[in-house]
Amino acid sequence: MTAAARFPYAPDHATPPGETLRQVLEDLHLTQLDLAHRTGLSTKHVNQVIQGSAPLTQETALSLERVTGVPAGFWNRLEARYRELTLRSQAIELDGEHLTWLRDLPVTALQYRGYLPTTSDRRELYHAALAFFGVANLAAWRRIWSRPVASFKRANTFTSHAESVASWIRIGELSAQHLSAEPFDKDGFRTALHHARSLTRTADFLHELQGLCAPQGVLVVYVAEIDKCRISGATWWSSPTRAVIALSDRYKTEDQFWFSFFHEAGHVLLHSKKETFIDDGSEDDDIEDAANRFAANTLIPPREQQHLASLTTTADVEAFSKRIGVSEGIVVGQLQHRGLWEWRKGNGLKRRFELLAT
Fold first, then answer.
1. Cβ pair 297, 307 in contact under 8 A
2. Could you tell me where the beta strands, DSSP code E, fall in the chain?
3. Residue 70's pLDDT is what?
4. Do residues 263 and 279 touch, judged by C-beta distance below 8 A?
5. Which of 339, 341, 298 is closest to 317 using CA atoms?
């Protein structure tokens, strides 16, 4: 059996390459002095490599291949793995700042959805959380993830739960990475929204809605609600030619879902590509007001809104909804929002649904 076959590359712990080299030398009946003579390295350096105190360089790996017959690639991978595991074992101790951040994350929800390991080891969770967010350390998390938080103008609503909001958005990002879309076509997206409006009358619309928007450069992703994240939807541009609309099931009713979708679509068409828009249903600034008007006017055209006050029964709503081509639940939602109906009236016409946790 050759030395290469005897020592397959499958390290699972931080063993210095020198340990394997020592075994290879024994197998070949060579001493450290013999190796030094054959490679031109000093005996001191050979001993340091074997002890793990000196790195095994690519040049040394090539020399070892010639002397031992074990491929240089094997030594290089062994060295890289050892250095990686050594660095991991020397990870920073978690201080109060790290532990506070970890405590504020929705760890249980992320574990349930498979984004974090099911462990109580705080150091392991901390490093897994950094990997989930795609950052190297807490300072980087603040640089990257504080930006969408800061752009959320209704700060009083969610400041204490910023980590939950960031986690929800990150799941949306990861979901969008697996989807494909054509470059953004503004006119095409407006046309797609006209077709999307007709989907409000169907029960199974989630996949079809994605199929309408992706060819126009807009990815629609669905992220089930996370505790302490009171968000209905969010919009951002993952590139200059690709927008993402993330939608939650916060209210579990179709009228809220569809209003959120068209609200976010309004952000795509009307507002900056440089901001992340996060919607909690507030109407406290001009940008959000514009997105709300866009959604309301798309769902129920202005020329039809004058007839809302005349709708007094569920039969009226059913006839009106069929005529204008939207679901009964959407009309009821608008009647309630405008104060024309009490919040309890007509809820039987609203379809309820819940997204799977992803």
1. no
2. 218-222, 233-239, 242-247, 277-279
3. 94
4. yes
5. 341
Please state the separation of Cα 316 from the chain's center in Å: 43
Q: How long a stretch of residues is the chain?
A: 358
What SS3 class is residue 181?
coil
Rounded CA separation 56/78 (Å): 9
Give CA–CA dist 131/115, Å, rounded: 9
Distance (Å, whole) CA 335 – CA 343: 9
In angstroms, rounded to a whole number, what is the distance separating the alpha carbons of residues 181 and 189?
12
Mode of pairing for the β-strands spanning 242-247 and 233-239: antiparallel
Average pLDDT of the residues in 205-214: 95
Question: CB of 288 within 8 A of CB of 153?
Answer: yes
- Which tokens belong to 197? 């409006």
Query: Which tens digit of pLDDT belongs to each residue from 213-272?
Result: 999 999 999 999 898 888 899 999 999 999 999 999 888 899 999 999 999 999 999 998
Question: How far is residue 57's CA from residue 41's CA, in Å, rounded to a whole number?
Answer: 12
Q: What is the pTM of this model?
A: 0.77
Q: What is the DSSP string of 244-259?
A: EEEE--SS-BHHHHHH
Q: Which long-range contacts (CB under 8 A, 24 or more apart) does 294-297 make?
A: 294/262, 294/263, 294/265, 294/266, 294/269, 294/270, 295/259, 295/260, 295/261, 295/262, 295/263, 295/265, 295/266, 296/259, 296/334
Distance, in Å, from the CA atom of 78 to the CA atom of 80, rounded to the nearest integer, reads 6
Token reading at 255:
């009228």
Query: Which value, to the nearest 10 degrees, does the dihedral of the CA atoms of residues 140, 142, 143, 145 take?
Result: 110
Return the bridge partners of 6, or none: none
Q: What is the H or E stretch that residue 146 is in?
A: helix 138-150
Query: What are the structure tokens assigned to 91, written together?
Result: 């990870």
Place of tokens 């919607």: 279
Residue 7, pLDDT > 70, answer no
Percent of the chain with pLDDT over 70: 89
pLDDT band per the 50, 70, 90 thresholds, residue 157? very low
Question: How would residue 161 be classed by pLDDT, with cut points 50, 70 and 90?
Answer: confident
* The predicted structure's pLDDT at residue 147: 63
